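Dear H.,

Thanks for agreeing to be a second pair of eyes. The structure we're designing against is below in token form, covering all 158 positions.
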């Protein structure tokens, strides 16, 4: 893929290198007892009963997996090929591969037609990495009828 901007290159390199160890960051009481529960509490009420979800900057599948386990179909979209490889492995191990499509790309340049998705999730700070976060939000907005976009997180110093 061609990503001329230095910022994107740094982000891709960082996540490509940390992909195999990324999930270990979540393996501590803060995430298990606090972050995961609070985040799920904000996501769950907005989930459609059925349909297709875009997990933008979905990384190793932290949120794709529980959503697929509910029977939703997902596109896990991420700029890092290594993060996607880890996600692919985990999703296959759980037998969820029929529900998940993987796509490498930049959330600032999404080329899906409007209304392709019933719900869009961008959890864990992917928007904060974009050179133009407003553009990313508008790309992910998916048109006036779209479900509200919930995103939270702070920018990592990459
Ligand atoms: C902190 S991780 C969050 C991963 C996952 N959503 C989670 O909650 O565990 C941020 C992810 O955003 C991805 N990312 C960063 N900039 C991106 C961009 N411009 N387009 C798509 N993905 C991006 C990274 O590759 C990484 O997988």
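And this is the sequence the design step returned. I haven't edited it by hand at all.
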């Amino acid at each position: 893929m061609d990503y001329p901007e230095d910022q994107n290159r740094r982000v891709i390199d960082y996540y490509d290198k940390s992909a195999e160890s990324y999930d270990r960051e979540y393996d501590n009481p803060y995430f298990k007892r606090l972050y995961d529960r609070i985040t799920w509490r904000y996501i769950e009420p907005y989930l459609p009963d059925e349909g297709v979800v875009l997990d933008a900057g979905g990384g190793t599948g932290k949120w794709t997996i529980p959503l697929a386990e509910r029977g939703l179909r997902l596109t896990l979209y991420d700029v890092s090929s290594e993060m996607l490889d880890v996600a692919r492995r985990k999703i296959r191990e759980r037998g969820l591969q029929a529900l998940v499509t993987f796509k490498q790309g930049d959330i600032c340049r999404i080329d899906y037609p409007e209304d392709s998705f019933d719900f869009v999730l961008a959890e864990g700070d992917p928007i904060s990495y974009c050179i133009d976060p407003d553009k990313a939000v508008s790309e992910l907005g998916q048109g006036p009828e779209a479900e509200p976009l919930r995103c939270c997180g702070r920018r990592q110093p990459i």
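Two observations from my side: The mean pLDDT is 87. Residues 6-141 form a domain with the Rossmann fold fold (CATH 3.40.50.150).

Warmly,
E.
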